[in-house]
Amino acid sequence: MRKYTLAAVAILGALWVVAAFPGEPAGDSEPITPVLPFERLSAGKVELGGMLFGDVRLSGDQSRSCASCHDIASNGAGSQRRHLSPRGTPLKLNTPTLFNAAHNFRLNWSGRFRTLEEQADASLRNPDIMNADTAEVVRRLRADRRIAEAARRLYGRDIDRAILLDALAAYERSLVTPGSRFDRWLAGDARALTPQELRGYRTFKTAGCVSCHQGANVGGNIYQRSGIFEPAALHGVDRLRVPSLRNVAATAPYFHDGSATTLAQAIESMGRAQLGVELDPADVADISAFLETLTGFHDGKPVSVPGR
């Protein structure tokens, strides 16, 4: 049986508890909404941004690109607990996926950045990530005829820092993953989910998970204290931007320090740490089944675990 603290019971009264039953369509006011592609993106800028995203000349020593940590061919993040800095030391935080990042209200675990341009600029200059001098990066890129011609065609001038950041941001805005089975259910396909998956969604709501994980990104739109009832991860951080749960089944390891290796472990820890709830193994399995329905598609393929 679940064991609820009095505080958790108090939280439950303020949550969405609209029940989803097997075989029934979504309600009219579900707390989660479909993730949608961005409209009016320039195909040319997206293409240029994609080239820059995979270009090692963006790093100080020309040894790594944005794609070195953000594996767009799989889950948008890779599978490492923590990636390494140019000096070979582990980063302080797990790398979040870039898929659907443009739908977050703030970026990075700290939520310090409001725009993709700000985040890209900070990553380029960060000595633990790209360790680049932006002016030097621009000089390198101007010597590349293909990139230089694309910048003049799309922006009407030679590539500069603003163009570099704008093109990267355009590409990152294109990295959305629509078409998940859960979104099909939200759109009216009552057969898109199994009875266990629907049961898991109901538990996700009634247990309180949805109080932080809701909206189009199933998170990514509020800050929350990490570890309300007990520590949530091995390395404590007072306040974090709540991560999106889109494609979460493919983005292990979990938490800001990558200390949860499986989805079941993450669900159990979140129940105890954030809600004061001890979830039954059956509830954990049901919630996990629901979360797997949030896997969407990119370039016609489902988001996947790296190496699969």
Rg (C-alpha, Å): 20 Å
Low-confidence spans: 1-20
Q: How many β strands by DSSP?
A: 6
What percent of the residues sit in helical stretches (DSSP H or I)?
25-40%
Question: Outline, from the CA principal axes?
Answer: globular
Give the spatial strand order of the biggest sheet.
Answer: 1-4
Cα distance spanning the termini:
36 Å
Structural class per helix/strand content?
mainly alpha
Q: Let me know the average pLDDT.
A: 91
Number of helices: 10
Strand count, sense and barrel status of the largest sheet are: 2 strands, antiparallel
Could you spell the SSE succession in H and E letters?
Answer: EHHHHHHHHEEHEHEE
**Beta fraction of the residues?**
under 5%
- What oligomeric assembly is this protein in? single chain
